[in-house]
Amino acid sequence: MSIRKRTWVSGDHTKTAWVLVYSDGNGKRKQETFSTKREAERRWIEVSGELHRGSHVSLAGSITVSQAGELWIDRAISEGLERSTYEEYRRVLRQHIVPRIGSLKLAKLTRALVEEFRDQLLRDLSPYSAARAFSYFKIIMNLADHKDLISINVAEKVKLETSKRHRHRQEFFKMDEVNSALTASTILGPKHRAFAHLFWLHGLRSSEGRGLTWEGVNLEKRTVTISQRADRWLNIGPPKSVSSFRTIPLTPSCHKAVAVLKAKANPSSDDFVFPDRQGRPMTYFQRISQLYDPIMFEAGLTKVVEGATKHLRSLHATRHTTASIWIEMGFSAKRVQKLMGHSSIQVTFDLYGHLIDLKESAADMMRAVDDWVLKNRP
Predict the structure, then answer these.
(1) 371 pLDDT band (50/70/90 cuts)?
(2) Does 175-328 carry CATH code 1.10.443.10?
(3) Which of 41, 61, 166, 257 is most buried by its number of CB atoms within 10 A?
(4) Superfamily of domain 65-166
(5) Would you call 132 helix, strand, or coil by DSSP?
(6) Per-residue model confidence as pLDDT tens digits over 129-181
């Protein structure tokens, strides 16, 4: 390994560079050029250590952050992740990571560059979006490290922490808004009424509602069973996770609404509960425009955004509202987890822990202990 000074004439100017020449782990001759001798010497120390550890990756053989990101997407697809999941990965990669740091080679990344990338995200995006994009970047770097595409993971110790006040809180309908929506659905007809009761009172995910067939609705047992879903591309498949397979008891009002819809539709067991005109699952936009929007407009649950009238809350807010109702009624966290189809009780606490804390305050719990003991003493 050696450092050589190189001088040449370009036009009327004499230029100088410092060239580091070395042999990699396979005995191949490599060289890297630097503008100063100090940079070349610093790189000499780095390369010497990497060669000694057997982790050296030459600059010429290094891939870019963008290319490493595509490897990450390919792995997500090969691991069988949902299309909506890896498409979201791809969107964040192309919108937030590639424009800022995607052209840099992994071998040229330094901790200072990663720190600057993090600061750019915080300047340009909301705290939530910045944290998500940076977490994806760190996953990409971890994958590159596992594939021996980098000598050292310079992103490992760089953190992006946001204040608790920036954490995303779930969106809920107020109780009077729920009643307004249910009343409006009754006015609009059987399909809207069944839709409203299943989503506001039973916590279905949008994809679960798209994939729901009449086979999953048992009017005799008064239950609805979630055993499949239709993604936004209308591909039918299993629910989001193993725990998403579940059977939910129907409320009396929902049982009545679903029974009326079934009597009117006279469907077969494999027909979808909410089909489009061709009998296929509704797309997300069809579901919004034909079922959700009419209920929201009829109920007056709207807001004006940049001169346009839109619905007050998102469709997914109906799912959070269901959980909040169950918690307010005293359902245990474990029961809420099972009925909502969460993968673990930790997910339930992460999403609704603040509601559970409000419902079960320490003072109320200790008062209940006192009441129980004193009322039942010998």
Answers:
(1) confident
(2) yes
(3) 257
(4) Tyrosine recombinase, N-terminal domain (1.10.150.130)
(5) helix
(6) 999 999 999 999 999 988 878 878 889 999 987 665 545 567 899 999 999 99
